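thought: user wants a sequence for this fold. calling inverse folding tool.
action: design(structure=
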């Protein structure tokens, strides 16, 4: 996971700023809703590489309907300035509720723009048409932009620093 994030930050780090038309000013990692003790490993990784100031998020102790999308699942540790652009990083996307809930919390804290980077996608092969979807996926190509799925928005094929 650390290597995938390092690659995304170095090769594609400026892509969300280019797409949003504004620089990244803050970053946040999505905390676990499972009551994990101590600092989440993803948070340690992101804090070493992300640009800008941290926009800390804390999970509430016992969220109602944790699979639902709700800004009430997280608490923002800061009030963000009006022109803030937050890079939100999540380790795994299952149904998307945690990242979307964290984005709602950041929006309520004042974020003007939120760009989300998810390191991994969890797909159950036996569910619905997932097996066929997985077989049809092309091989991983690290040159593809994680935000567009194609070329980097700068057009140079390498949007990182």
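)
observation: tool returned 161 residues.
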């Amino acid at each position: 996971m650390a290597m995938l994030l390092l690659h995304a930050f170095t090769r594609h780090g400026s892509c969300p700023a280019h797409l949003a038309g504004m620089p990244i000013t803050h970053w946040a990692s999505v905390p676990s809703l499972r009551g994990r003790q101590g600092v989440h490993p993803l948070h340690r990784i992101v804090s070493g590489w992300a640009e800008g100031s941290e926009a800390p998020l804390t999970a509430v102790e016992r969220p109602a309907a944790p699979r639902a999308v709700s800004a009430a699942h997280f608490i923002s540790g800061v009030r963000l300035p009006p022109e803030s652009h937050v890079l939100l990083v999540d380790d795994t996307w299952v149904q998307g509720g945690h990242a979307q809930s964290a984005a709602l919390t950041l929006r309520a804290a004042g974020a003007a723009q939120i760009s989300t980077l998810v390191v991994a996608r969890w797909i159950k092969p036996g569910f619905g048409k997932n097996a066929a979807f997985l077989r049809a996926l092309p091989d991983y190509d690290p040159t593809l932009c994680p935000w567009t799925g194609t070329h980097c928005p700068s057009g140079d094929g390498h949007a990182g620093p």
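thought: summarizing for user.
answer: Here is the designed sequence. Strands lie at 26-29, 53-54, 57-59, 74-76, 85-93, 113-121.
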